[in-house]
Please model this.
Amino acid sequence: MKAIKTYSLAIAAVPAVFLLKLSVSLTIAQTGNPLIDYLRPFIPFLGGFLGFFQGLLSPFGQMFGEIIKSFIDLIPDRGPTGFAVYFMIFAAIFGISLYLNVIWRPLGYKKVKDKKERAEEPKKEEPAQEREPQIDEKPVPEPSAKVSESPVKVPEPPVKVPEPPAKKSELQSTEEPDEEDLPEDETKDEETK
Amino acid sequence: MGAAKNMFRGIISAAIAVVMYVAIPWIGLNVVKTLDLGAYGSIDYARFNINNILFFIQSLGIIQAGIAFAKGSSPKYSKRRAVFSLLSFGGAGAYSYIIKYSGLSQVPIILTGIGEITVTFDALVFMVFGIVVLNSVLALFDLFITIKDQKNKVVYSLDKEKKEREMELERSGEISRGVANP
Model:
């Protein structure tokens, strides 16, 4: 349903926007600059957008200008002292901030909410640990027990004893007897025959 | 750890302020100063008072950098951060105002054979003032909220907590010593 709506909207809107853009660009004279020619149809909209903000902010600015005028008169002009006054003000601000943020109280503040959450976290973990035995109420039988109960006897897998790293030749020699057994089996078969 | 972190943040803020308030306007105005309009015209630098503007850009930019350091190095949720934030917006207002009345808002351009035109940026400067005012109002609200939060104990001081912990440790140490040596 949504797809149909967006599709129909696209059918209605896209050509309209395209035609509007085309008509606007045709009515405006071309400058020759590709960027300006491309932006030109949008300039009135952009101008209106900026003009709205300008109308909104300018009264505040004029009000502020009148308030700050008396303060501005206190700022010293470029006299014989030059930048000295300004550097002194900078040093004073820098020194105060160093004292406040490095020596006096450098660690700052944290929200009490975060502290409470941090305190609650270990409490949540504790009950979770207590529940663990409850979950394991049904003792899971060991695989060896299962094997003993089963009617069909399954040969136990050979226990692998960790051997010291042996040479390849030795390993091959251990495998050889299995291969030598084959002729014995063949003789047995012959006997049965 | 906290002090070093504060210092680092403050230095970064100061560096950003230096770029914003000193470097970019300085480079921009120097480009304007050396601008060659050719045979078509010239900028009347005597009335434009460009050297005075450059002086104020440097001097007020330095102060803005100091305030930015103070603001950047202040910890979160602290009153001093809000105060320095308010001060920085005040400084930004003074910066733009003094540059405006030094002559930057009206740039006289002499066109040869045609006459003189003056490009005015008054509307733009008032817009900048408006932005500064709105930001200052926000900073003021921030200050009120910070004071209220500290009063209602929504936030707690880590420095105070550390001091209290140290006091407790000292007390417990004294008690243990008292038990050991009655």
Notes: Residues 2-180 of chain B form one domain. The first strand of chain B starts at residue 41 and ends at 43. The helical segments of chain B are 2-33, 45-48, 50-73, 79-104, 122-151, 158-180. Chain B touches chain A through 50 residues (CB under 8 Å).
